[in-house]
């Protein structure tokens, strides 16, 4: 099919996503509430707050409870997973964050063995701390930072990257691909020798009530909310809608489609066939039961979502 025909068809794709009668997923387990209280109790011994967030959603999903209860110390926003984000509008992102009062921002890719941006963190934090009064901690030459953020944005990865960069040491905090790995505020973890800097790792904490379905879906796609609480089917559909809206059509080549599609069932069927993801189901007929082999749409949806999370569908900015 010719390019102009493909683009003309794409012009008829959805411009608004229909969430139907779904509700915003609420995910505020007991360990999150406990963790937030521990953070509030520990903040008096902290010199600077490091808030980690996903660079693909620099505005969506940042927990307002952090600003309300922990924003009493110098604050640095670290937008992690920059390797997965389309940063062509980085300047505009920084400008918009500044309008919201966020002036110190650092983009990082903490999974790289050597990330030059991670090297910038200690000098930035040192300057932030030394430019403001430390009150009762003035006589203490060691620095203590608290790492906060919603689940699965790379808080533990940042701690490990800092240790790797500044101390040439291995992991100091457990890392996982699902939200909820860190369950409690841990003991202090040293990440630098000159100056001596310790970090407090904390559990990922979502707001008790997520602002909107749109925000909740973006958080879910970035792995912040457990998939089954939202539903892989609607997550895959919202991902397809987002990719088409952003004119990111790399999924067409990846799954051998003839052209971009706005029909998630058609896309998932093609993914299932290409990857051999099928399931056997029993069908009741008038002459007895028969077993059919049909596409496994749930498995196909999961593969589609996982490809996005790994950056295999191209660089994307959901906000």
UniProtKB/TrEMBL annotation:
A single GO molecular function term of this UniProt record: GTP binding
Residues the entry annotates as binding GTP: 80-83, 152-157, 204
User: What is the topology of this protein in the membrane according to its UniProt annotation?
Assistant: Peripheral membrane protein
Question: InterPro entries per the record?
Answer: G_CP_dom, GTP-bd, GTP-bd_ortho_bundle_sf, GTPase_MTG1, P-loop_NTPase
Instruction: List the GO biological process terms.
Output: mitochondrial translation
Q: Provide the leader sequence positions.
A: none
Record-annotated CP-type G domain positions: 36-208
* Keywords, in A-Z order: GTP-binding, Membrane, Mitochondrion, Mitochondrion inner membrane, Nucleotide-binding, Transit peptide
Spell out the PROSITE patterns in the cross-references: G_CP
- GO cellular component labels: mitochondrial inner membrane
Compartments, as annotated in UniProt: Mitochondrion inner membrane
Coiled-coil regions listed: none
Pfam families in the record = MMR_HSR1 (PF01926)
PANTHER family this protein is in? MITOCHONDRIAL RIBOSOME-ASSOCIATED GTPASE 1 (PTHR45782)
Q: What's this protein's function?
A: Plays a role in the regulation of the mitochondrial ribosome assembly and of translational activity. Displays mitochondrial GTPase activity.
Family the entry assigns: Belongs to the TRAFAC class YlqF/YawG GTPase family. MTG1 subfamily.
UniProt-recorded name of the protein: Mitochondrial GTPase 1
Source taxonomy: Eukaryota, Metazoa, Chordata, Craniata, Vertebrata
